Every structure is written in structure tokens, then in C-alpha cells.
Structures
1.
Amino acid sequence: MASTLNPYLNFRDRTREAMTFYQQVFGGELSLNTYADFGMSDDPVERDKIMHAQLTTPMGFVLMGADVPNAMPLPEGGSVSISLSGRDTDELTAYWEALSASGTVREPLTAAPWGDSFGECTDRFGIMWLVNIAGPDA
């Protein structure tokens, strides 16, 4: 099996909501496992938090996430972004619209100086997304 590189997102008590949203955007199979499922917490406050979530989409994307326990600091997420790129204008535009609809658009999805269409947004969970649609000469 080849090595893979997957984004792993950390949230404070919002993993189930965020990963369900991403499943609505991208489709696919979502698995959610709590700390209780793995016997990792007897604390009633922590038991139902998501210890590991994995979304595998029909396009082969894999996105993972977890709820950070209350006793641990939540990692800063501002230095992380997820890039979606390709040639399928309809597909990538649909992802853009779903991700940006309830978030903040930093750069609208428009023609870029390098000949592609590009947009940048932060979704409602604080995750930054970059969408690049290859131009006709790419």
C-alpha cells in the first residue's frame, strides 16, 4: 500500500457537526468513533466526544477529525488550509458554494492572474479552503 497524506482537523466539541457538514458537501462514507467506543474516557463530559472521524468520499478524498479533550489545548488552526483543485468546474464550484455559504469569503471564486479560477474562504468551523479550477490552457 502506498503512503497517504490526509488532513486531520481538530475541533472543540464540534467534530460530529463539522464532519457531517463535510459529508453533505463531498458525499461519501463517514465513520464516527467516540472516546467511549475506544474505552478512552470514563468522564461523562468526554465520553461522547469524537475521538476519531473519517470521511472517505467517492472522489477518493479522505478527511479526518477529532474533538480535542477539555484538558488539552486546542491547536491553532489558522496556519492550516485545505486546497481543492482540478478541472471539473461544476464539481469544484459546488464545493466552493457549499463551503463558503455559511462562512467568510476571503477571495471570491473568480479568474486569477495565472489563468485559473481561484477562491479562498473560511468555513463556519474556522477551516480555510482554497479552490483552484484549472483554466482552459492548463
2.
Amino acid sequence: MTDRDLPDPATVEAVLGSHQGAWGVGGRVLAVQDLSPGLGRAAVLRVSTTAADGRPAQWIVKIPDWGNGSLLDSRDSQLDRREARFFASGIPGLLPSGLATPPDVGLLRHDGLTWIVMRDVGAALRRPWDPAAARALAARTALLHAPGAAHPDLLDTPWLEREGHAAYAHHIPSGHDNLDALADDPRLSTLFTAEQVRALHACLDAAGQLDALAAGLPATLVHGDLQPLNAGLDGDGTLLLIDWEHVGVGPVGFDLGTFVSLYRAFGGSGSLDEQQLLAVHGDALSELAGADLRPAVARGFAVAHLSWGLHLRLGPGLTAVRQGAHGESPEELAPHLDDIRSGCLRALAWAPVAGIGAAAGR
């Protein structure tokens, strides 16, 4: 839901026509499709055009500061501006071969808002994720270390997100409340055992410990919201990444952790061998860095699961279920409860790696 009407084709055509860009002068907008995810303030549109010479093309138009917020309730004051700053900076040009952003990005201003226009890379994004593709991603994601290694000052860029693992730490109190309410809700009373509930409370209480662990790990450029819907492999194996609102500096292993944490929730098929993915990622990163970063990668991976992953699931995730946002029937709730349960139990399995002594078995 947004708090204003989305731009119609005539408006989009007028805005594009008033700015120079790869979309060309004299192009026509044929259709506008709303792709807005509903989890944040951005409006996302797929725009079908024809150029002046009649050639068809598809573009994505993203207007970051468009609509209402959501249960995610971001406290990040830079969130609506960071992706435009990323594309306006030289960072995309520093990404090595094997990593890519959408081509032909343009930044426009209209009615006081920034519009980000880019080629539609939906064909790559729609390719299904399976364990083999996840292994390719694990290797390619290590390449995000290269820009900061070659240009150390880049990691001091002030608008990059810091402590992204704690982006949803403000949901910790609601996470505790939701866990305490499980026993009295017949829909949720069997979601976790009593031992698992105690362990999850302990992990939420370990936020300061996780902060210290993350701060002590080697830092790297991170996408910050790496999950299956924001990534795709093109025909030559290049990893295409979209949605850079959370681009920042974080611990090695963090991006792989967020991808694995949300793999099942966002359409990944098959079971992932997390240790294998860590080995692929750690080997690639260590070779790139010229040092053995594999133990650090495992700890950064654990941080992603135990902070970002738990905070999202036990806070807004369980709140949405309890408020009926996903319906009331067992069939409607099943996929959401499966993600909450499986994601939280995977996180608990990594508690010992992070030095949290409250892990519970699956």
C-alpha cells in the first residue's frame, strides 16, 4: 500500500522524456506494472517502452521515498537515499568481473523525489535458485571484498550502512513478547519447545555480544539485503544484484548468512548444505584477501542468522502472524510458520559458533 497514486504511463513518459538517458529521446511508454513489494516505502514499476525507432525495451523505475512504511519499521534515516547515492558514486564501477548491477542506471528528479531508472534484468532474477546456483552465489559474493581491498578509504564512506546486522534490533522487545505469548495461542503453542523458547530468548538477549563479535571481524563491502529475490545469475554466471538500499560495511560472511536465512522463504528449492557454502565462500574470500578468513566467515555467517534473521522472524514476522496479516486458517499460516520455525532453529544451530551458550537442538 502507498499513500499516493502511482505514476500513470503518461506521467512516466513525460518524466523520462524530460531527461537524457539510455531510454532515448522520443520513446513511448506503453504500459506500467506495479511491482512494489509492500515491505517498504519504495514504489517499483516495470515500464514497457518503444524507442523512437520502434525498438521495444523494458525498464524498472524505482521511487524510494514514495509510500508508507510497514511492520519492518526501519529506523535507518539513510534508507530512502542510500541506493541513489550508491549509483551516483563510483562504487558500482569498482565491482569486479563476476558481479554486476542492472545496466544503464539513470537518476532523475521529479516532483521533489528521486527516480532510479534501470534496465529490467527480470530474466536473470526469475531463474530458479537451487543448491548448485547457491554454490555459485557463495563464490561470487566473495568478490564484494575486492572494492574495499583495493580502495580502503571506500569503507569510510559516511552514507554506507553500519552495523546492518542490528538494523532490526529495535524489534527485540516485541520478539520477547511474541515468544512469551506462544503458549497461550493455540495456533502457535507447538511452534517451539520450551527449551527452544528459552534459547531464543537468550539469543535475543545476546545482542550486545553479537555487536562486539561483528565489530571484531574483518570488514568488507556488503550488499546488506542479499536474498533470492535480490539476486540472479545471468547466462555467463555473473551475479546480478538489485536493491542496494542496505549497502554498507559489515563482517565477512554476513551477506551469505542473509541469503541462506531467507533461501526457503523466497523460493529457493532443495536443501542447502550450509557448511559446503561456507567452504566455497571462505575459500574464495581467503584467496582474494591473501589470508585465511574462513573462521571469520563462519562467525559473520552466524551473526547474520542470530541477529538480523532472528530479529526479523521473532519481531515483525511473529507479529504479522498474531495480527492476522497472513490469514487465520492453518493452510494460510503454514508457509509463514514454517519459515519462522526453520529459520529460528537454523539460527540456534549457529549459536556455539558465535559463542552464545544457549543453543537448542532441532
3.
Amino acid sequence: MSATATASPAAVELDTNVRDKLLKVGSANVANVLLARGFRNVMMLGLAPLAQDQPQLVGPAYTLRFIPAREDLDSMANYGRTDNKHRRAIEECPPGAVLVIDAFGSLQASSMGDMMAARLRHRGVSGVVTDGGYRDSAAIEATGLPCYQVRNAPPATPIALHPVALDEPVGCAGVAVYPGDVLVGDRDGVVVIPRHLVEEVADEALDAVEYEDFAALHIANGRSIFGLFPATPESRAEYDEWVAAGRPELEKK
């Protein structure tokens, strides 16, 4: 599969082992791994978790794109139709996927409310990301669904947003997102991994986190970061010996 081809996350399932690895790493670790491959624009800047204690977000992207609303098309009556793409997204986003809502940065109306969040949670969706905002934020938080936004946007969706496309490439918070790309979100923010790189990125990001555990032990013991962090060939060899020895605690200095 080419790097630019589109595919539904329903057909691009995230391997359980890969998901488990990504649940152990941070968005910054992932961004650093991607930077080493030349990917500079992967962090969705300006987004924040709805709740600071929400679970880590990991899953392949299923996308919804909005454009500005128009009065003859967007009303509460039309919004209630079963063919409305916003409502369809809630029922069609695959379990395990992340609903990525391209709201073109608009905070004039809500990208999602609590009833939609509750339905997504019940259906097993991994979370929601938007470059707009939500309404009923306290109730969304109560569902336990990991969600990211710019800030709250209470007005009703049809006031400013018209849904036009599902499961197509979108731009969200300035980052290109193709269906099936994998998102990782934590307190720092959300990073997007091109789907064809996800397995190797997960391996390298987890390795980086485990090396940081080693470095943190030495720093807490008074060691300088020079020659330790970032890793050098010598410190990597030292790390490998430490792992082989069963990751022992250091003698306090």
C-alpha cells in the first residue's frame, strides 16, 4: 500500500502488540522518531486534552470534514436526518478507531456533544480529536472517552458547521491526516503517524522511552547529561549491559 493511498481504518486494523507499545510512549517520543525520518509536521499544535487524567489515546484515524454552514442547508431539521454525515460519523466510526474532526479551526459551533460522545464510547471508539471545540464538556468528560480540542464551543453545530466528507484525507490543527494513520495522544498533545510507518515507529519510540528510564536513574544519581542524553554509542552500550543485567537499581552517590 502506498504512503498516499486512502483506506478505511475498518480495513487497517491496529495490531494489538503495536497498540500496547504506543500506549506506553509519549507523543513527544513519537514525534522525535518521526523527525529522524524527516517528518516535521506531525504534532497537532494548539490542542489540549479535555481532561488531564483521561486515558492515553491510540488508534487509526477515521475522518469527518466540516465546511462553513449555509442557511438553506443547515438547520436543526436537516441535522436530524439519518443521512447527515455528522451523525453518520458517530455510527460508522469503527471500534478502536479515533474520530478526527476537521472543523477548519472553527470555534463558532460545536464539533460534538455529550450524547455523541456517549454513543462513541459505547461503540468502542478510542477517542475524538478536533481542531474546533465541544459542548457539554463536563458530560463528555464523564463518559471517559479521550477527547482533544482547542477550547469549548457551546453553540449548536448547524449554526456554523456543515459536514461534507467521511473517511477522506483531512487537515486537522495544521496536520495532514489520512484515513488509517495512527494517532497517539497524551497530556502534551496529539501526534499523527503515517500508517505505513506505525510498526517501526512504535518499536523505536518504546526503545527511546526505556532508554530514558535508564538515563533518568543516572541523572537522579547526580550524573551529567553530557554523554548520556541524548544517547551516545557509549551510553547505548552501557544501557544494553544494564538491560542484560536485569535493569538493576543504581548505587546511590
4.
Amino acid sequence: MARRIPHSVSYPQPVTSVHAALTDERYWRERIAEVGGDDARLDKLEIGDGTVSVEMEQAIPAEHLPSIVTKIRPGDLQIVRTEAWGPLDGQRATGTVTARVTGMPGELTGTVTLSASGTGSTVELDGRVQVSMPLIGGRIEAVIADRITEILDHEDEFTARWLGNDA
């Protein structure tokens, strides 16, 4: 059974400013460098006319994982993530996110929406984590969901600083 990950963040900047950051090469390079963790990297970065497609790899150190996870998959968890954003359509943009853990039958899939919220904007993720392992999959889903949420929180903080510095 999949575990849902609802995640939302609001920014005081308008949709156009947030979308401009999300489609800026420098934003992605600085974000992965600052909050990606040890050995994090961008494997793909394609920017089009108001669109972006990113693939990155990050790790969750083994010391931050419960024993149920490290017994099944020793060492750090390597997570390959993708994020793609479409162009602005009025005051809204949508995209997709995926994440998979190498060496483990688990993945995150979801949609993201950037929309106006008063004079600012909101980014919402509607994601699901699924680990296909009988009996223990649900407990591992919970761990992965918690760690992904922590990563998202750090990325939200980075984005808020980025937007504040560029404003």
C-alpha cells in the first residue's frame, strides 16, 4: 500500500518570480550544491521556453536510517530524483516528480502545482511513496516519506532565501 506525501510551501513572491527560479539553471546548480548533501549531483538539466527537466542524485546517510532499512539495504540510500515543470499558464504551472531508491523496490511519484495565493504563491506536492516488499514495505515507506519530507523542507528554505536574494 502506498503512503501519501502531501507537502505545501508558500512564498511571498508572485508566481512569476517562483517560476522564474524553477526554470533558472543557476538556481538548480546552487540548490543541489547547498542542500543536496554529500556527493549530490545534477545528472541532467534541460531548460526550454519556460520549462525545466532535472535529474539529480542524492544520498541519505546510513546513520540517519533505522535498522529495518539498513538490514535490507546496507549503506547510504542513493535516491535518483526527477523534477519537471511546465510553462506558466496564467498564474499556474504544473509538473511531475519522481524518486527511486537504487537497490530497493521503492519509488515516489507525484505532481506539483505552483499557483497564486493572495499576492504570493504556493507550491504543492501530491506525492505517493510505495515500497513493494511484503510485510515490511509500509514501515520502509514511512521512513522514506519522512526523509523525503526533510529534504523538501530544506529545499523550501533554500528557495525562500534564493527568492529573497533575487527580489
